[in-house]
Amino acid sequence: MQKVSILHLITAAKNASPFDVNMAYDAGFDKIMPYTYVELNEVAALTQDAIFSRSPSGIKREALFIGGRDIHLALTMQQTAKSAMFTPFEMSTFADPSGAFTTAAAMLAKVDALLKTNQQTLAEQSIAIFGAGGAVGSTVALIAASLGAIVQLVAHKELAQMQDYAAELHAKYGLSLQVVDGTDDAKKTQILQNATVAICAAAAGIRVLEHAHFSDSKTLKIIADVNAVAPSGAAGVDVMSDGQFIADTQIVGLGALAIGQLKYKTQQTMLQQMLQAEHAVHLAYNHAFDIARAAST
User: Fold this and answer.
1) Are residues 82 and 115 in the same domain?
2) pTM of the prediction?
3) Is 281 within a domain?
4) At residue 297, does pLDDT exceed 80?
5) Three-class SS string for 221-260?
6) 234 - beta bridge partners?
7) Which one of 59, 69, 137, 253 is separated from 232 by 20 to 30 angstroms, measured CA to CA?
8) With contact defined as beta carbons under 8 Å apart, do 62 and 54 qualify?
9) Tens digit of each residue's pLDDT (9 = 90 or more) over 194-207
10) How far apart are CA 116 and CA 105, in angstroms?
11) Whether residue 174 is found in the same domain as residue 114
């Protein structure tokens, strides 16, 4: 008799995400078990409890999903879980804290698809990220920099604070990231005189870019905004924008729901991969981008 499929969902947060629970059920998992307020030093024991209670064939029918709010903690938790397992006692893992990995992957995959229509690549771009300190913005930075793009983390308040964060990312991931001062309107406008892609990943309901910030830019080609709560993160980019020109510009926009549709497909595919894999897979933001990119072609 086939074992029921179980997704063990761990998070350092107070609550498991209802979004992730729904996604897991819709992807085909029979049971979802959330574990909240999980600390890093508890991950190995939870992982081993899960794998040692089943035979190797049964382990194929379970997986570990890592949520939370902190992308760096989630990745460390995933590595800790992987280190606690060994063949044949190994289940699949998938880190997607706050949906940041799949959202950032979908965002960049949509940008990539638009660039390809003009025979361009992400590696050729200068990408300015507004909201770079957040989960989605940080993940966009990691993916884009790993592909060879020039990545600029825009500081909204404290330039030194963003510089410290860029240094932390460099130390953790070995990626070179620039920090630029976006603390006033003139500085935002100057940033967009050189950037080719602008990413809006600030908090929901925060307008980051007004039309005047980018309307005179000779370099900017795409603005992608992940904010689904009015007002949008960029003037002229509504939630359904999917490559249409922003009024009175030659810049195209990508809105939150257009990005969200691809994010949904990406997360569902990754959950199903864990269910269907013959051998354990360990999925994070780089895998999410590959899947989103393939789905957007």
Assistant:
1) no
2) 0.96
3) no
4) no
5) CEEEECCCCCCCCECCCCCCCEEEECCCCCCEEECHHHHH
6) 209
7) 69
8) yes
9) 999 999 999 999 99
10) 16
11) yes
Question: 238-241: which pairs have CB atoms within 8 A and are 24 or more residues apart?
Answer: none
Structural domain tally of the chain? 2
Secondary element (H or E) of residue 272: helix 256-276
Q: What is the pLDDT of residues 109-152, one digit of tens each?
A: 999 999 999 999 999 999 999 999 999 999 999 999 999 999 99
Verify that 71 and 155 share a domain, yes or no.
no
C-alpha of 163 from chain center: 21
Residue 86 has pLDDT above 90, yes or no: yes
Whether residues 32 and 57 share a domain: the answer is yes
For residue 1, the model assigns a pLDDT of 73
In a domain, 272, yes or no: no
**3-state DSSP call for residue 178?**
strand
pLDDT tens track for 243-292: 999 999 999 999 999 999 999 999 999 999 999 999 999 999 999 999 99
CB-CB contact of 217 with 188 (8 Å): no
| Domain encompassing residue 41 | 6-95
The answer to the question of residue 283 being in a domain is: no
Strands of the chain (E only): list them.
6-10, 31-35, 62-66, 92-95, 126-130, 150-155, 178-181, 197-200, 222-225, 242-245, 252-254, 282-283
Residue 273 within any structural domain of the chain: no
- Whether 171 and 48 map to the same domain: the answer is no
Mean pLDDT over 232-247 rounds to 96
- Tokens standing for residue 272: 């199903």
The answer on 234 and 134 residing in a single domain is: yes
Tokens of 8: 């063990």
Q: Is 277 helix (H, G, I), strand (E, B) or coil?
A: coil
